[in-house]
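ZP: hey, is the coenzyme A complex queued? I don't see it on the tracker
AM: it wasn't, my bad. submitting now with these inputs:
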Amino acid sequence: MTMDANEYVKIRPATKDDLDDIIAINIECLPEHYPYSFWLEHLEKWSDVFYVAEVNGRIVGYLLSRIEEGATFCKSGKGRVGHIVSVAVKEEYRGRGLATAMLSAVIYVLQNVYNVEEIHLEVRISNTKAIRLYEKLGFIRMAQVRSYYLDGEDSYIMVKNLAPTPCRAKSVEYL
Ligand SMILES: CC(C)(COP(=O)(O)OP(=O)(O)OC[C@H]1O[C@@H](n2cnc3c(N)ncnc32)[C@H](O)[C@@H]1OP(=O)(O)O)[C@@H](O)C(=O)NCCC(=O)NCCS
């Protein structure tokens, strides 16, 4: 879909007033749903890495992420990791770069405000569109998790290394 010259696009952190629209987009676009308390908790703890895309004042996409202390792939041991938990754009607004814009904003904050060493996410192995989007932004497929999703589909864990040292892990391994 192409953009109308009169359209007004804004990528900004989410607020509590956005939550009903965000939850509706999540239900419309993804099989993985969460209770209201889950969205609210993320907003309260990590509002600066929870973004929405707005077109003409209407929420058309969101990106939810958080910060965790956990195992790292690129070096041995634990570290501070950014986790992209959920991202979706309403179907009629896809292919215009909105997910790229939200991801770029969140990656910037994770790297420069939270100093995370790596960013992790899970994606269905059949979701080629999303995998291409993440690869474009520097994520690599690091592991394949069998039956990660409730319907039995495997996930890839994709990782973007932000540490100054190169990533020690190179290939997809089965977990
Ligand atoms: C995945 C999703 C968030 C992408 O949103 P989007 O705003 O359309 O993404 P963008 O316009 O920023 O596209 C970014 C990249 O994704 C890939 N992509 C987007 N649409 C594509 C398509 N129809 N076919 C193949 N690749 C595509 C391309 O690499 C594209 O980069 P390019 O435009 O430079 O070629 C959106 O398709 C969506 O909401 N899907 C359903 C929910 C979902 O699967 N979320 C991800 C869960 S892990």
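AM: back. The longest helix spans residues 98-112.
ZP: great, adding it to the tracker
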